[in-house]
Design a protein that fits this description.
B: 3-stranded antiparallel beta sheet
């Protein structure tokens, strides 16, 4: 049933796309139809595949590092109130700067290779993960904490047994947001300066007026972002078994 | 059974005064709750019934004057166990681990303790549900789990804050019987708004009234708990208690 719905949805979108091309009469160098894009996709599959590997690696590395960094910052702030007082304003300031404006600086510092794109993705991911995990831990049921106090609990055991598990559903929503925005970081990084990746390839194709190829790269990017999101979503639902269906499973 | 020698301590409130939100909740409240018996505290809502339990539990957020002490004083750090209206079972832990929560939080888990938990679970009629998550249990089963978790603490003073009020009438009667059997020998302070529950379970019933709250009446129903609701003496006392409570309402 799910598969059928997905198939119908995709077909619907393709039909809509083709209708748009017919109705607007847009020339192929403005809006190519789905068929030429599919042809371009198939004929350039190996080169698109190699660029996809680059972008996907950037996204995954960014997700991993950003989540790790966000998780440890949130934990540090929960464990140490002093650290929290210093870190919280920093976090807010970091969000006041538009991260995309930092892209040229990151490329300058980390070079044209993968590192600057990963850094970009990490910067975007860091805040939603930190904020969601931290506020999740802060919202621990006070009655549970009182129960633990009466039981003579050790602080670390309370953190591990009560505070962290209780915050995991909130953490998971942070990771879902992070998964959705990580490709943006990687692609913007590639636009500013790179020699590989789907973002780079799109600019390249655009400059050569190979609009069908540009759309092919875009299609792959959209498909892989969706796939990644749904994989992470399923994984989180399975890991946080006591509160399933937090996300938007198909 | 688990609550063996030395005898459970009595609890003494000596001229306890406490202000809450700028108004006196207690003024020179003096009260003795005998050791090894169940004292039920009845009174209109907002009169400070639950606050009495919090004071005994040593809640740091309540600045009171006067003295509250245990006679004889128990071992440091092993004073009381708590059970509230919400079961507070952790949704990510199976029943047996929830029953063992105190030991886990103190890093005291052991095989004999685990055996004891399993034994208690069977005795409470929950055999076969040891590995079930709380979400798979009914309200009555969860509250039984909370009762077992309280008993596993092996404290001689048990504080119960409306522990059965969220249950349907039949389940409540069954749980009252179970609680009376399993807590025999401990000093139990049970706050309730249900006069029948007080009459079924209490060796003594303390009725609070007025503002600031004072002891309006102490009733000793006679005989051993749990008393049958259908018992004629209980029925008569129920009527008297209701009248008393109605007159105490502002």
């Amino acid at each position: 049933m799910k598969a059928l719905r997905l198939l119908l949805l995709t077909t619907g979108l393709l039909v809509l796309w083709q209708l748009l091309v017919i109705l607007t009469g847009a020339p192929p160098y403005i809006l190519p139809g789905p068929l030429p894009v599919a042809k371009a996709l198939v004929s350039h599959l190996p080169v698109l595949g190699s660029h996809l590997v680059t972008t996907l690696t950037e996204i995954l590395l960014g997700l991993l590092l950003g989540t790790l960094l966000g998780t440890s910052s949130a934990l540090a702030m929960i464990v140490s109130p002093v650290l929290k007082r210093w870190m919280l304003p920093l976090l807010v300031i970091s969000q006041a700067i538009p991260v995309f404006a930092l892209a040229p600086v990151l490329v300058l510092w980390f070079g044209y290779g993968m590192a600057s794109k990963v850094a970009m993705a990490v910067l975007i991911i860091f805040f939603p993960v930190t904020a969601s995990f931290y506020s999740g831990m802060q919202r621990t049921d006070p009655d549970l904490l009182e129960l633990a106090r009466i039981m003579g609990a050790r602080p670390l055991a309370v953190l591990r047994t009560i505070v962290i598990p209780q915050a995991l559903p909130a953490f998971a929503s942070g990771v879902r947001v992070a998964t959705a925005v990580a490709p943006i970081g990687a692609v913007v990084g590639e636009w500013v300066g790179s020699s590989a990746g789907l973002g780079f390839y799109m600019l390249h194709a655009n400059a050569r007026m190979q609009i069908d190829l540009m759309f092919a790269a875009l299609t792959i990017l959209a498909a892989i972002s969706l796939l990644l999101y749904f994989c992470i979503d399923r994984l989180l639902d399975r890991l946080i078994y006591w509160q399933p269906n937090q996300g938007t499973s198909l | 059974m688990i609550l063996s020698a030395p005898p459970a301590p009595a609890l003494i409130f000596d001229r306890v005064s406490l202000d809450f939100a700028g108004k006196p909740l207690f003024h020179d409240l003096t009260l003795r709750l005998p050791g090894g018996q169940t004292t039920c505290i009845l009174g209109p809502s907002g009169c400070g019934k639950s606050t009495i339990l919090k004071l005994i539990a040593g809640s740091a957020t309540l600045p009171f004057s006067g003295e509250i002490h245990f006679d004889p004083p128990p071992e440091a750090g092993r004073r009381v166990a708590w059970m509230g209206q919400n079961d507070l079972l952790l949704p990510w832990l199976p029943l047996v681990d929830n029953v063992l929560l105190g030991a886990r939080l103190r890093h005291e888990l052991s095989e004999p303790l685990r055996h004891k938990a399993l034994h208690l679970i069977a005795e409470a009629g929950l055999a076969g549900y040891e590995q079930s998550l709380p979400s798979a249990l009914s309200g009555g089963m969860r509250q039984r789990g909370a009762l077992l978790r309280t008993l596993m603490e092996e404290r001689q003073v048990l504080l119960m804050d409306e522990p059965f009020s969220a249950l349907d009438a039949l389940t409540r009667l069954r749980l009252q019987n179970l609680a009376a059997r399993l807590t025999a020998g401990a000093t139990v302070v049970l706050v309730t708004h249900d006069p029948l529950e007080a009459l079924r379970l209490g060796d003594r019933i303390v009725v609070l009234a007025g503002s600031p709250a004072q002891v309006a009446e102490i009733i000793e129903p006679g005989g051993k708990p749990p008393r049958e609701a259908s018992d004629p003496a209980t029925a008569v006392q129920y009527g008297q208690l209701l009248t008393l409570l109605m007159n105490g309402e502002p």
